[in-house]
Amino acid sequence: MLSKEYWEKRYEEGTTSWDVGTITLPLKEYCDQIENKQIRILIPGAGNGYEVDYLFANGFTNIWVIDYASAPLNAIAKRLPQFPKEHLLQINFFDFSPDTKFDLILEQTFFCALDPKLRSLYAERMHKLLNSKGKLAGLLFQFPLTEVGPPFGGSSGEYKALFEPFFTIKKLETAYNSILPRENKELFFIFEKK
Questions:
Q1: How many other CB atoms are found less than 10 A from the CB of residue 99?
Q2: Cβ distance 32 to 57 under 8 Å?
Q3: Exposed, middle or buried by CB within 10 Å (0-12, 13-18, 19+), for 78?
Q4: According to the model, what pLDDT value does residue 183 have?
Q5: pLDDT-based confidence at 5, cuts 50/70/90?
């Protein structure tokens, strides 16, 4: 796993090419159809967390954010002074062990930043963090998995094999509304905890 210092340096230098400065359209459209604004939501590896801004502005009240680096969490706190500071957690995701489980976990460029050797552990942890019938939803890259990254890619078949032991695959398809640089390179997915 890449070190905390690695990620702090990326934010310090502004080498955050994954950061598009707003919630991406696939996640926005998914969040727009959620009626219960009290559900417990986790955004791991959130980076600058524009999903947090969008959800918070739209009345969601139970959002938790994790990042390994302090800079993006500080940026969220600065942008959203009313957001509960105790919900901004600087921690290694794999060390996160909350007392209460989540109804929804949003995935946006966290999975692709992890060493591919951690993918099975990621799938297990996501399963463990969710309530019964809880959902893991978001975007996964679809381009050949390389040894150099991040980002690290993958394919629909690889993702199915990885997640099917833990989740019912509700949706896994090429996102029709990706930003132009990611067109045909993203899979939108909804996985429900088995």
A1: 4
A2: no
A3: exposed
A4: 77
A5: low
Other C-beta atoms closer than 10 Å to the C-beta of 178 total 18
Q: Would you place residue 129 in the very low, low, confident or very high pLDDT band (cuts 50, 70, 90)?
A: very high
Q: Considering the chain, what is the average pLDDT of its residues?
A: 89
**What pLDDT shows up at residue 165?**
98
* Nearest Cα to Cα of residue 83 among 92, 73, 93, 91: 73
CA 147 to CA 149: how far, in whole Å?
Answer: 7
Please say if the pLDDT value at position 15 is more than 50. Answer: no
- Residue 127 dihedral angles phi and psi, to the nearest 5°: -60, -45
CA 63 to CA 56: how far, in whole Å?
8
Length of the chain measured in residues: 194
CB 134 within 8 A of CB 194: no
Strand order in the sheet with 167-174: 88-90, 63-67, 41-43, 102-107, 130-141, 186-193, 167-174
For 119, the token pair is 């993918």
Q: Looking at residue 16, what is its pLDDT?
A: 44
* pLDDT(113) > 50: yes
